[in-house]
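**User:** Everyone, produce a chain:

**Assistant:**
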Amino acid sequence: MAWFKWKHLLILIGMIGLMVWSAQVTEFDLRKFSQFSNMVDFLSHWFPLNTGVVPGVVKASLVTLGMAFLGSFAGLLVALPVSLLAAKNTGGHFYGFIRILLSFVRSIPEIVLGLMFLTVVGPGPFAATMAIIVHNASVLSKLIAELIEAADKGPQEAMKAVGARPIIGALFSIFPQIWPNVLSHYFYRFEVAIRTSLILGLVGGGGIGQQLFIHFKTFQYSTVAVDVMIIMFIVIAVDFLGSRVRQYVM
C-alpha cells in the first residue's frame, strides 16, 4: 500500500480532534435551529421597506464610501514605498525591522485603532478613516512585498546591467509585472474597508454603520432593511468596478 502513509492518518485524526474541540468551545449545536421561526419573525418586520429614509441613508452611505475609499487609497500610497523595504530582495538591512513592525501594526484590530484615534481627534469619520489607513497600509505593504519577492528576476537583472539605481530598477522592472495583482489586492481591501467602516460606525465612527446601529437599537427594522440593501448595493458596485479596472489594466 504505497499510497497509505501513517502521517496522513495522524493529520486526519488531528484535524478531526480540532473540529471536535472547536465545536465544544463555540457551543456549536445545530439543534438550536429549532428556534428558526424567530429569525423568520424578525425578517418579517423588515417589510414593507421604509423608503422615506432613503435620502438620509444614501447621504450616510456616501460618508462610509468616502471613509473606505480614502482609507484604502491613502493606505496604498503608504504601502507602495514601504513594501520595497519589506521585501527580501529589495529591503536590504531594513527587511527584518519593517516586517516585524508591519506584523505588530497588523495585529491591532481596526476597531481598537479606531478607539485609539477617537481619544485624539474625537468621534466622527476622521478617526475611522485614520484607523482604516493605518491598518490597510500594514496589510497592503505585506501583500505587495510578497508580490515583489515573487516577481521575475530577469528584468531586474537587466536594469542592474545597464547601471540603473535600485529604486529606478524596481519601478521599471518589478511594478509593471505586479501592478494587476496590486490593483486586485487594493480593490479587495476597498471592499473590506466598507465593511470595516460599518463596524467603526458602532463606536462613533459615523456613516451608515452608526445609522444601522441606531436603527437596530430603536427597533426600526424596516429602516434596517433599507440600510442593509444599500450596503449590499455599494459592495456589489465596488466589486464590479474592481473587476472592470483589472480587465482594463491586464
In short: The chain has a mean pLDDT of 84. Residues 69 and 195 are 12 Å apart (CA to CA). Residues 54-86 form the longest helix (33 residues). The chain is about 80% helix and 0% strand.
